[in-house]
Write a structure and sequence with these properties.
With 124 residues, the chain is α+β, with helices and mostly antiparallel strands. The protein has helices spanning 3-14, 19-26, 44-55, 117-123, and strands spanning 27-35, 41-42, 60-71, 74-84, 90-103, 106-113. It has one domain (3-123): Nuclear Transport Factor 2, Chain: A, CATH 3.10.450.50. β1 (27-35) and β2 form a beta hairpin.
């Protein structure tokens, strides 16, 4: 698979209801994961731990991919992340753009740019 296909597969896996498993499979051990307005997550285990907390409330994230561009190890995406609760009800739709860099078939850098207010409000 090329890098664009790997990112698409990662997004598909996120919609299957096992966010921690998707992160475990697709993130490199030394990943740096950045989200606008939130603390960076460094390392796969830190990302898995964080998404495990989130998955208690939002176990499914369906990615509506609006655009994807790939060159070399970098994949850029414009998308809407449809975050759904345990009953499959959408909690919020999060428009964002992201940058991923891959190495050896795994994401080792991921930065998403979005307005974090909807996410932060959901965190209560």
């Amino acid at each position: 698979m090329d890098n664009a296909e790997i990112v698409r597969s990662f997004f598909d896996a996120m919609a299957e209801g096992d966010l921690p498993g998707a992160f475990e499979r697709y993130l490199a051990a030394d990943v740096l994961y950045r989200n606008s307005g939130l603390p960076d997550q460094v390392g796969r285990q830190a990302c898995v731990d964080r998404v495990t907390e989130v998955a208690r409330r939002i176990p499914v994230v369906e990615i509506e991919l609006l655009a994807l561009a790939a060159e070399g190890d970098t994949v850029l995406t414009e998308r809407v992340d449809h975050c759904k609760d345990v009953d499959g009800v959408e909690v919020h739709a999060l428009p964002c753009c992201g940058v991923m860099r891959l190495r050896d078939g795994r994401v080792h850098y991921w930065s998403d740019y979005f307005d974090p207010r909807a996410y932060l409000a959901e965190q209560g």
